[in-house]
Amino acid sequence: MNVNSNWTVEQRYRRLEQITSHEVAEMESARVADSGFPSYHIAPKFGLLNDPNGLCYFNGEHHIFYQWTPVGPVHGMKYWYHLSTKDFVHFTDHGVGLEPGDDYDSHGVYSGGALVDNEQALLFFTGNKRDEDWIREPTQCFATMTAEGTIEKQGVIIENDHYTEHFRDPKVWKKDDQYFMVVGAQTPAERGSMVLYQSPDLETWQHKGPIKTRYQDFGYMWECPDFFEIDGKSIMLFSPQGVSSSNAYDFKNIYSVAYIIGDRLNLESMELEGHQDIIQPDYGFDFYAPQTYLDEQGRRILIAWIGLPDIDAPSVKNQWAGMLSLPRELRLEEGYLVQSPVAEIDELKGKKEVFSGTHVLNQTSFMLRLELESDEFSLELRNERGDKVIFSADENEFTLDRSQMSQNYAQEFGDVRKAPRLSKRQVIVVYVDNSVMEIFINGGRHTMTSRFFIDDLQLVSEQGIARACYYSMQPVTGLFD
Ligand code: FRU
Description:
Pfam families: Glyco_hydro_32C, Glyco_hydro_32N. Its EC number is 3.2.1.26. The chain is mainly beta. The chain has 2 helices and 36 strands. The longest helix has 12 residues, at 21-32. The strands form 8 sheets. Strands 25-36-27-32-33-34 form a 6-stranded antiparallel beta sheet, with no helix packed on it. The chain folds into 2 domains: 9-343, Glycosyl hydrolase domain, family 43 (Tachylectin-2, Chain A, 5 Propeller); 345-473, Jelly Rolls, CATH 2.60.120.560. The relative contact order is 0.14.
């Protein structure tokens, strides 16, 4: 299925003001009619959402921006769409936060992160410009956001002097009065890398070069780099393209997400010293471009795009695509990043219903808490006709099987994903929201995040689960004005 292949470049690169109110109304009514549209996940009112951008805690609120193509459920002219929330339950819709249109971002305001500094939030982004021959000329740019919410673009701070046209997605932090920026880049030898810049004043940026690890030859491009510390360890998180693995678990999606934990970044040698092997945080079908930030409680929070570039999910026929993951708090445990939904999400939970065998769903946004004690179990989400998605395990591995859904897609990348099972006794938490599931396995050391498409989803059945609890989930509010 590829509804989107008919779109011309001219159509994709139309700006918001070139879409008629009639087109908007049609897109919105198609989205409203979609029973797969989520109720407690962030998704676009129409058009395509991709990467989370500019995540920060600023002026008493979490600010969440995302890449948005308003013209339809396709990749095209990118904007930053802006939401904020104090509690992840009530949101404020600020509409477009950053729009393209200057010479340096004539073809889109691409991804980047935020830094709160001197009573302002600095929003770093990539100016995506294409010349007459459609050659990309990316630059790293920034904008300021005041406490009153005024956002102003400040222009280009870093030109592309060292890399191919793939040079994007700045993420900035401050340490000891110095600013550091990582950018996702393709080296002239066409290898993916995370490159570092340093600045004393946000104006002059010194190119320090690629961060060195044992993964110098690992794919042709690394998108959406992030670099942060937890418990004194330095962590590189990024979205590599062009990687694969012969084991049953790793790098099965078109593009992947990986992290490397090291002892410290040596700014002289540019080495990530004392680093472990690379790890994949998620083993589902749809997880990409995660970004993290620190909030006022010192929590390191991760939000990812639930979707992938170059894959059209069935929701495109309802004129929308993509959603954001739940905000996940990160901790470091025994060499793994451990993810758990932030505590605020609990506020959305209804009362507990214990079930065994089959549970008839009274709504399709819910959470399951599953206590595992045996080697084997299975959990099915299905309709009365038998269309289903199956999550199961044996003693060694978890399996998520999407081969029998009502609407299948992206099958050229396989319709089964597997993850290692690190222990027999464990509690698994599954968040389901109409057409998305986020499964937290191995105590949060791994997740399996996936879209699924079952028409008239009605039943959950379990087999072999020691104790299964169902909780309804309430919708969040304020995502659309
Ligand atoms: C990742 C990505 C980024 C880029 C953005 C454009 O999904 O390709 O590298 O900045 O999307 O929307």
